Amino acid sequence: MQPEYFLFGIGMAWVAIATIQDIKMREVANWITFSLIASALAYRAFFASFYNDLSYFIIGLIGLAIFIGLAHAFYYGRVFAGGDAKLLMGVGATLPYTNFFSLVIWGLGFLLLLALAGAVYTIGYSLILAYPERNKVKRKAIKVLKEVRKLFILTSILSIIFIFAAESWILWIAGSIFIFLVPFLHAYLQAVDEICMRKLTNPKDLREGDWLTGNLKARNKVILARVHGLSIDDIKLIRKAGKKVVIKTGIPFVPAFLIAYILLVMVFFLGNGKFSFLSELFALF
């Protein structure tokens, strides 16, 4: 059996479990992500020992370290919530790399697929959220668009330049349209965020990690809107003050991981173990 088969199997199973939990509870338990990492490394260690190939385990550790760094960057940059970041670490340990070159190829490949799947999934999910409040979202989006007039002018110019710079008509049409739509997408997503993803919450319903929309004063103490979200002590203080607070809710993003992982497996088998597009690109250098 090829080593990738087992890694793909545990990766698919764990990400599917995480997806179900994220949809139901809007969180991913630590036992899911940490057991995924442990299982992937344990298998790499077994394979390395059985075939006397220590490099297979070492490259797994290097890959995990790189994805831990990426996960922290995405978390502190507020791109991912804590559960999403930890899941990225686990997924990184299951990618089918055997050397540093394939680590770069499959690592970037998964991130590319995750960005694509995440964009399509997020827009689709946001449309469902926005529909009941579509009139408010429309008014807010128009207001935001007026505030970013300079961005609109810049992307319009860039889209025209791209038309003349691109070598194929498919590329210039797709690229110029995407660049032109950036400010509209920005305005729409900001409107959805402010209209549909802010929730006035009772203190008893607060959970550790919930994100405040701004700093909050409770019982003569200022609770900061931190990247880590509310702590247990913060929640106790808010409950003593008896104050309702506005919490920023998020889109359950783990389903995008599952979509991207399925695409990754398809790319692997259809490409006979190669991510051809990225491999050819890096071969140029």
Strand content: 5-15%
Calculate Rg over CA atoms: 22 Å
CATH topology of the largest domain: Four Helix Bundle (Hemerythrin (Met), subunit A)
Indicate the percent of residues in helices. Answer: over 70%
Query: What is the CATH top level name of the largest domain?
Result: Mainly Alpha
User: What's the CATH architecture of the largest domain?
Assistant: Up-down Bundle
Describe the structure.
By secondary structure, the protein is mainly alpha-helical. The protein has three domains: 3-120 and 252-283, Up-down Bundle (Four Helix Bundle (Hemerythrin (Met), subunit A)), CATH 1.20.120; 127-196, no CATH class; 198-248, Molybdopterin biosynthesis moea protein, domain 2 (Alpha-Beta Complex), CATH 3.90.105. Helices cover 72% and strands 6% of the residues. It contains eleven helices and five strands, in the order H-H-H-H-H-H-H-H-E-E-E-E-H-E-H-H. The protein has helices at 3-25, 30-50, 54-76, 82-94, 100-130, 134-147, 149-165, 169-196, 232-241, 254-270, 276-283; strands spanning 198-201, 211-212, 216-218, 221-223, 245-248. The strands form two sheets. A three-stranded antiparallel sheet has the order 1-5-2. A two-stranded antiparallel ribbon has the order 3-4. A hairpin with a 2-residue loop joins strand 3 (216-218) and strand 4. Helix 5 (100-130) crosses helix 10 (254-270) and helix 6 (134-147) packs across helix 8. It is globular and about 60 Å long. 28% of the residues are buried.
